[in-house]
Structures are given as structure tokens and as C-alpha cells.
Amino acid sequence: MTDTMQRIVLARRPQGFPVDADFRLEDIDMPTPAEGEVLVRLSHMSLDPYMRGRMDYVKSYTAPQELDQTMGAGGVGEVIASKDAGFAVGDKVFGMFGWASHGCVPASQLRKLDPDLPPSTALGVLGMPGFTAWSGLDAYGKMKAGETLVVAAATGPVGSMVGQLAKKAGLRVVGVAGGAEKCKMAVETFGFDACVDHRAYKNSIEMMEALHAECPDGIDVYFENVGGQVLGGVLPIMNTYGRIIVCGMIAWYSGESDDTGKMPLQKLWRMALVKRLTIQGLLQTDHVDRFGEFLKDVAPGVKSGEIAYVEDVAEGLENAPKAFFSMLKGGNTGKQVVKIS
Amino acid sequence: MTDTMQRIVLARRPQGFPVDADFRLEDIDMPTPAEGEVLVRLSHMSLDPYMRGRMDYVKSYTAPQELDQTMGAGGVGEVIASKDAGFAVGDKVFGMFGWASHGCVPASQLRKLDPDLPPSTALGVLGMPGFTAWSGLDAYGKMKAGETLVVAAATGPVGSMVGQLAKKAGLRVVGVAGGAEKCKMAVETFGFDACVDHRAYKNSIEMMEALHAECPDGIDVYFENVGGQVLGGVLPIMNTYGRIIVCGMIAWYSGESDDTGKMPLQKLWRMALVKRLTIQGLLQTDHVDRFGEFLKDVAPGVKSGEIAYVEDVAEGLENAPKAFFSMLKGGNTGKQVVKIS
């Protein structure tokens, strides 16, 4: 075993869009597991939009990322040393190891992985993003066959799961994605009925017209993960009794605004009343007691290929920041992971 | 029987706050009931904030008020001629007779009143406003004992019912009202735990501080009927998992805005996500199949005096516009009705 491991820390808080100098790659001593702990060599780590929010120093649902500490992230890997009876060398596990080559954590914080599935699926389709989609739709979607659902980042791990679950429930499913290639993938790989390329439209009104063409009966469920121009296009064509599940707003994570972001609250309030909308904030951790139910429901479909997933694999821990910046701009296709070893 | 009846029509659409010249009092021929119709002499008619919205020509949940036609309104009165076997002269009934001395409508549109209760209660505590409170809280409030609820227009027919139902459910109930007298009434007559006088505060931040003093544990349920500065004070102190039931926004009905109305959507979206708020539009007509259940639940308490109600009675149809203007400015105390005969 080597004497050192690598990690990436947050060197300073980003001003707006993050840059290289906000991060620092470090060599540190390899930890030795204490009683009840397990040492893991990562094969893959996850990159997710929520990480941008944690880099700001604001009160939110999670504590902010601490400066000079390992950037937080989920990861998967193989046990290389164990001081807990429940885990043996060679076990494949998931844990919150951070942006790092290795992780040493209490056994209680680890989850053993199904050996019949690629470990990286525990970061996307069968991990937090897939569960976000599943738990949000189940708790708040009130989906009815024949209705219309819209979701952006349609080829991402949340959007692609939202779309597939809604199709299964009999809804018309319209995605939004950046570029013709992703739109093609949304339809051909993930079975969306249609997908609108947001890069082809320069404001909310054009977006609304493009969405309306694909949602002739209006929108009943909008799974919100982007905000911005897509939200601006969706709001006017929401149907009476429509549901908006507010799960994320990647377009606004680095502090930018736009016409939609600046829309007066008074206008939204009127829409909410007149159309009797339900607007519901979603955080998957509120539903985490249902994670086992989710795996039972979805894992068989992933194994059989009935549920599709796409991963975008960056190579090497040192490239994590670059891959993260690219993801924030929609440069990834599918679930963004970093291959560590 | 006289040959004519009186009515008030909308003469023109108000520009901002309505004025006398927007209305016209007319004498018209007394209608004669056709087969299946009933002629009613009104004792009281209702004035409600929603009427302001209908005066604008905008697509909403109801058709706009037509020009030169009788202003719409609920009313109660006595049957004076009947061509329907179900109604006899002398019966007390509720119907949508409008701003008028008499009404002639199909029997199917009438509801017979409980002879043991004053007919005017069918316009307020046991009518649309009371039902709005009851149905909204029941469907969307998810009230739990020990939580805190806030409602404005606390002595109005919706607010006072919201407060009394929430108290019964074991919540801490904080009202907002205009002036010391109404605040006293909210506490002493309607049993609110506290009531904040919005006239004493000149912006949302002051309002927030005043509300926070009375809601030390934050706000779990906000029953929204005013918008404006009260909403601006409520939003920052909403608790995680808070529910906002959007039932009305009287502060904004005549087109005014303010800092809260102009708050950027992006800010609300972030609050909705971080606090996992539920924002729900409410229209009582969606729940109207439960009206019988409401009466069964609430009428005994009104009869026994356990449920309090206060009416503000204007005298004479000709004074309806003046009373309406006053109500929009909060000049009424309790449910605003007009005594017609």
C-alpha cells in the first residue's frame, strides 16, 4: 500500500462561475482505519450540480463546504482494509468519500453494492440522482396517464429517470436539452416523446412557443431542475391543477439572473391562484427512508436494460474540477462521474 | 307587488381603484318567474374581494363581469313567487342574485336556508368565505398541533374562520389586521393568540420583525389572502416544510405593486427548494362537493356560539359601491354585507 493518497480541497469560495484556482490538489498521508472503520480505494466519484451551491457560504439545507477540506462527493470503490466485521477486503461499497483517491469512514456510513451491477450505477441511475427523480415524482407528481410532463437536462441522471418513470406511468413526456445530439438521445435512448433544444431559442417567449408546440394540451407536471429560460417558457402553459416540483435550478447556481429569475413574485402568485398550481420544494434526503423501496423498484429494470442510463466518464481525480465546470455548462452527456482508478 | 326592481350594473371597467362612476343604479321591470323559476326579494347581499378581480377584463377562473349587466354577488332573501314545486312563498333561500333588490332564477340554483340561523350567515361564516377557510385548511393545511399559523384580514370572514379552525386543531394562531381595534377583536372575539397591526409597520422588514416576535418558532402555515407587505414579512420566517395556501391577494387587486410584489421569482424559488415549501393555489369552487360536510361540521358551532362571527352591515342597495370601496381598503370590520330590505 502507498503511503499517501490524493484529494482535492476547496481553496477559496468561487466568485460566480468557479475556476481552477478555487480548488487545490493535495497529497496527504494515507489514513489507517481505526476500530469500526473501513478504508476504501475509489474507482469512481460523482459530480453533481448541488456541489456548486455548497461552495457558497450561505445557510441552506446542508452546511456549506468547508475551506481547505476535501470537497464532498459520493463515490464507489473497493475495500482495501477493514476494522469492521461487516466489511471484508474486496467488497464494493458506496460512501461519501469526497473528491479523493481513497476514503476512510465508519462502517455505518457505507452501503454494500449489488455485485451484479457496475459500481458506478450507484452514483447515478441507482444513486442519489435516480432516487431524486423517483422520490419526487412518487411523493408530489400525482401523475395521471394522458397528462404531459416536462423536464430539462433530459439526458442527465435526474431528467432521464424522470422521463422514463413518467413514460411508464402513461404520460406524454417532453424533455429539454442542450443541442441536437442530446435531444436525439432523449428520444432514442430514454424514450421521451419529444425533446426541445434550448440552445435554439434565445428567450422565454421563444422557449414557450417551442414547448407549446410539443405540449399541445399544456403542461401538467414540471420537474424543475434548471430554472432560467426553461422555467420562463413553462409557466405560461402550465395547466390548471399543475404541479411544479422544485428540485434544482442549475441555470442560477452561479448567481446569474435573467428575465425569468427577475419575474415579479406578484405575477407568479396570480398564476398560482388562478391555475391552482402546486409548487413543491424537493430534497431527496427527506425521503431517504424509502431508498430500499426505490432500489427494489428500479434495479431490476436497470439489470434487464429496460431502464436506460448513460454515463459521462472523466479520467483521473486531477480532472475533476474541469469536468465539474463543464457539467455546470451542460457539457456532459449523461451522469458525470470521474474514474479514479 | 311593485312593478320595478333595482339593480347596480358595471358601467365601465375600473382603472386601478374603483370609483362611483364605474357603477350605475338602475330601475328595471320586475321579472315574472317562468316555469321552474323562483322570484326572491333580497334581505342581504354579499360583498367580497374577488369581485374586484372580475371587474377587469382578464382570463381567470371565472368569466369577467359583463358591462351593463347586474354586478354578480351572492344574496339571501325570501321567496315571493314560485313556479317550482320545491319552493314556497316565504322560504328563505341563498342564490347568486347579484347587486339587486330582487332576483329571479331557476330553482336548481337556490339553496334553502336553515330557519334556525340568521339568513345573512349564509353569506359569511356559513357561506363562501367560511367554506373557503374550511376547505383550504382541510385540503392543504396539514395542520399539526403545536405548529404556528398566520393569516391576515384576521377579523374578516375568511381570516376569522381560518384562525378559529386552526386554534381548534391546536396551533398557535397569529393574525394580521389593520388597526388596534381589529387586533383586539381578533384576540378577544376570535381567540387568536396574537394579532399584528400592519398599519404600525411601513415595510416588509418591519413586518417580518413584528411577526417573528409573535411567531418565535417560525411559521408553518400561511393562509394567504392579502399579498403585499404581509407576505413579504412572512416568507423569510417560514419554516422548513411550511405550507402557503394562496387564496387571495387583496393588496394587489387594483394593480398596485410593492417590494414584495416585485421580489424576484429566483429568490422565492430558492426559498421553496431550501425550505421544501408547498405553495398551493386555492379556489373554493374546486371543493364544492364538500359543502354539505362543511355545514355539518361548522353550523352547530355557529348555533351554539362556539364559533364566533362578526358582520359589518351597510344599509341600502344604493350604498353597495361605497361599502365595496371601503372593504377593499379594509374599512369593514367582519363580513361585509348590504342590507337590502
From TrEMBL, chains A, B:
Q: Read off the SMART domains from this record.
A: PKS_ER
Superkingdom as given in the UniProt entry: Bacteria
Give any GO molecular function from the UniProt entry: oxidoreductase activity, acting on the CH-CH group of donors, NAD or NADP as acceptor
Name used for this protein in its record? Zinc-binding dehydrogenase
The record's keywords, sorted A to Z, are: Oxidoreductase
Tell me which residues make up the Enoyl reductase (ER) domain.
20-338
